[in-house]
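quick one, 623 residues, struct below
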Amino acid sequence: MNKQKKPLYRYYTIILIVIMALNFIVFPMFQQSKLETTNYSDFLNKIEEKKIDTVQIENHNIYYTLKKDSTDKTYKTGVMNDSDLVNRLDKSGAKFGQVYQEQMNPFLSSLISFFLPLIIFWAFGSWMFKRMQKKMGGDDQMSFSQGSGFGLGNLGKSNAKVYVGEQTGKTFNDVAGQEEAKENLQEIVDFLNNPAKYKEIGAKMPKGALLVGPPGTGKTLLAKAVAGEAGVPFFSISGSEFVEMFVGRGAAKVRDLFKQAREKAPCIVFIDEIDTIGKKRDGAGMNGNDEREQTLNQLLAEMDGFDGSKGVVLLAATNRPDSLDPALTRPGRFDRRIPVELPDLAGREAILKLHAKDIKCSSNIDFNVIARASAGASGAELANIINEGALLAVRDHRKTVVQKDLEEAIEIVIAGEQKKGAVISNRERMIVSYHEIGHALVAAKCKNTAPVHKITIIPRTKGALGYTMQVEENEQNLLSKEEAFQKIMVYTGGRCAEELIFNSITSGASNDIEQATKLARAMITRLGMSDEFGMTALETVNNQYLGGDTSLACSNETATKIDEATIALIKKAHDEAYQILEDNKMKLHELAKFLYERETITGEEFMYILNKPAEIPAQTNKD
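---
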C-alpha cells in the first residue's frame, strides 16, 4: 500500500511548498511594491513644503504618506536624532503619532502563518479527492475517518458487485440456444454443490473457464445463471474497472477481489471483457511495466495462489480471445474454453419463444419462420426483435403481438424503420423497382440460392431505398463454391437490371458491390476456391467475433494477382447475371411494374408471376 501512497505524498509535498512560497515570498513582495524607501533629507523637504499627510513612527522607522498622491504609496525612512521633528510636523499640519506594536504570541503567530494555510489546504485537498473518487471509483468512496492520507484506505478496494445466494435472479432456465455451453457449465455447478465426489476420485476442478463468442450471445447471462444454479455468492466486475490512473491501484483491486472471494468461498468470480487487462504483453509501455501489465501480473499471481478445491471458480468473458496473453489462457489458469457462438435455427427459435413469454402474443405465431428469417442474429438481437414487435403492436392499438409484427421487427433491426415521409421521384422508384427485381430474378433462376421471401421499395432509415430478403429453408453450415459464386451473381443482379433497362448505372448498388467484393476475395484468399491459387491461405482473419479484420499474408506480386483474380471473378458473375436478365426481360418488366404499383410483394407473389406463362398477343390474319 505504501507504493500507492508515495506518488500522492509527493503531490501533497509539492503543493505545500508552493503555498509556503506564496505565503512567505510572493505575498510580501506584493506588499513591498507599494512601499518606497527615501532619504531623511527628502522627508524634511516634504515637511517644509507641507506635502505630508500622515506620519507614523514605528520602532526605528518613519512611515509617511503624501497629500494628493494618486499612487497611494507609503514612504519609509529611518529615525534620526532630531529633537525639533515634532515642532516641524506640527507646523506643517501633518497628522503624526508613534505606534507601539504589541508583540504577538510566538505560538499564535506560527499557527496563523504556517498551520492555518496547511489546514485549509488539507480540507480542500480532501474535498477534491472525494470528488475524484466518486467520478473514478463508483462505490469506491472515501471518508475522513478511514485512516490517514485523506481517506486513502479505499484506494485498493474492488468495485465488484456482489450477489449473494440466488440474487442474480438467473438460472439455466433463463438461457436458451446455448445447450453446449450450459452442459459445460453444469459441471461447475455440480462441483460447487457436491465437491466431495470430485475429491473422492482425485479430480481437480478447473480454476477458470473462459467464455468466448460474439457480442450479445449471452456470456454474462450464462455466468449469472451458474451462480444462480449453484446458490453461491457471485462477484461481477468489468475488466475496465481494474485500469486506473494511479499506479498500483489496479493490482490492489485484484488482490482485494480475490481476498473477498476466499472469505466467501465457495463462490464465483466473473470478469467481463477480460481482454481489457489481459492483452498480450509486448513491452511497449513504460519499460514494459505500465499499470495494465502490473494488473495482469497480479491477476496471474492470484490465479496461481488460490486453490480451486476451496470452491472459488473464476469465469471470464471476451470477444477477442486471440488478443489474450498466453500466460493467462494456459492450463492451470483458464483451463476450460467454452464457445458461446451465434445460435443455430433451433436455438434462435428457442430464444424467441423464451422472450415471447414476457409479452402477449397471438397463439398462431410461427416462430420457426421468424427464426429462419433472422439467420445470424445474436440472442440480444432476437430479444430486441420481440420487443420491437411488441412496440409495433402498441403503435397499432392492438392488445397482442401477431406474426406481421415480428416480421416487420426483423426488417427494423436489419434495415431500420420505414421512412414514410420520404419523397422519391417516380423515376427513382422505377429504378429501385427494376434493381430489386434484378436481385430476385437472378436468385430465382440460380439453383443454389435461398428462396426469395420479400421484396420492397419502401425506403428505410438505415439508408436502403429498397431490399430483397432471402430466407434459407434449412440451417446452412457449409458454403460450396457454386453457392458462393451464385451469391455474387445475386449481388450483381441489381446493377445488371439498371444497365439492361436504363443503359445507365446508379449509386444504389454500392452495398452490393462491397458485399460481392468481400465474398469474391474470401473465395480466393481464404476458402481455396480459386483454380490459380488452390488451397493456399493468402489472408488471415483477426478479431473473428468483432467483424473479422483481414490482413494479407503474401508478397506484393501475389497481392496484385489476387486483385486481378477478384476483378475477373466478379466480372464473370456479372456477365452471367446480365445474361439471365436478358433472357427473362419480359418477366423483368412485368415484375418491376407489379412491384412499382404495390411497393411490397411477398416471395409467393413473386414466384407466381415469374412462373405464370407469358401472355402472347393474339395475331390477326389478313386475307
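The first helix runs from residue 2 to 32.
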